[in-house]
């Protein structure tokens, strides 16, 4: 006689709309199978997912975001924006010279935000020695182009509100297509733990 008290640890309910993995049950995706969200396969290995268990709930992974400026052959303005969530703390911000720009008259870069358009880096000549190919200007080595946010002792690297880091390249005169400059921001958005009072 069948045991009518037995309940499997994995089962469907709600007319099959919900699949339940009860305590002690296991969902095992075998080799060749896939687990998807909105039709997109989740590809990290179990070891990679388990590694995130070592990250404290009050911590946050470091994010590195980049924007590439590419000389387009005509004079004009190029704008690159990196959006930072509220409560983000900038660890580093910088610009990489990949290839010198060849605008006939000038090619200049500034980096700032919505409050100060050159708060991170003041006017940087992309045609000459301000940022030659292979060079990097960043917080610790701004190449003499430090803006107000990183030039003073009280650096403005944290913002409680959402914030955009904005780079603007302006070219004047006949141009080619050689210039390449990368702007990057390395940041984290942690959840602060509470200090204790003895």
Terminal residue distance? 65 Å
Beta-strand percentage range: 35-45%
Q: List how many beta strands DSSP finds.
A: 13
Total DSSP helices: 2
Instruction: Just name the CATH architecture of the largest domain.
Output: Sandwich
Calculate Rg over CA atoms. 25 Å
Name the descriptors.
five-stranded antiparallel sheet, Jelly Rolls, 198 residues, mainly beta, 2 domains
What can you see in these coordinates?
- The protein has 198 residues and is mostly beta strands.
- The chain folds into two domains: 10-54, no CATH class; 63-188, Jelly Rolls (Sandwich), CATH 2.60.120.
- 5% of the residues lie in helices and 38% in strands.
- It has two helices and 13 strands; from the N terminus they run E-E-E-E-H-E-E-E-E-E-E-H-E-E-E.
- The protein has helices at residues 46-51, 148-151, and strands spanning 10-13, 18-21, 36-37, 40-41, 63-70, 76-84, 88-99, 106-112, 121-125, 136-137, 158-159, 163-172, 180-188.
- Strands 5, 7, 10, 11 and 13 form a five-stranded antiparallel sheet that branches. Strands 6-12-8-9 form a four-stranded antiparallel sheet. Strands 1-2 form a two-stranded antiparallel ribbon.
- A hairpin with a 4-residue loop joins strand 1 and strand 2.
């Amino acid at each position: 006689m069948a045991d009518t008290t037995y309940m499997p640890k994995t089962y469907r309910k709600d007319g099959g709309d919900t699949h339940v993995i009860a305590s002690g049950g296991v969902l095992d995706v075998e080799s060749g199978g896939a687990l998807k969200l909105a039709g997109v396969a989740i590809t990290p290995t179990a070891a990679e997912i388990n590694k995130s268990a070592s990250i404290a709930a009050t911590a946050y992974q470091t994010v590195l975001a980049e924007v590439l400026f590419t000389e387009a052959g005509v004079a004009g303005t190029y704008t690159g924006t990196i959006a930072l969530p509220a409560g983000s703390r900038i660890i580093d911000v910088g610009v990489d010279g990949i290839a010198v720009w060849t605008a006939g008259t000038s090619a200049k870069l500034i980096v700032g935000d919505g409050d100060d358009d050159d708060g991170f880096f003041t006017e940087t000549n992309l045609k000459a020695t301000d940022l030659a190919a292979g060079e990097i200007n960043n917080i610790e080595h701004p190449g003499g182009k430090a803006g107000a946010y990183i030039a003073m002792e009280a650096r403005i690297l944290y913002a409680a509100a959402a914030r955009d880091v904005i780079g603007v390249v302006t070219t004047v005169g006949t141009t080619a297509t050689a210039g390449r400059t990368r702007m990057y921001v390395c940041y984290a958005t942690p959840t602060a733990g509470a200090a204790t009072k003895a």
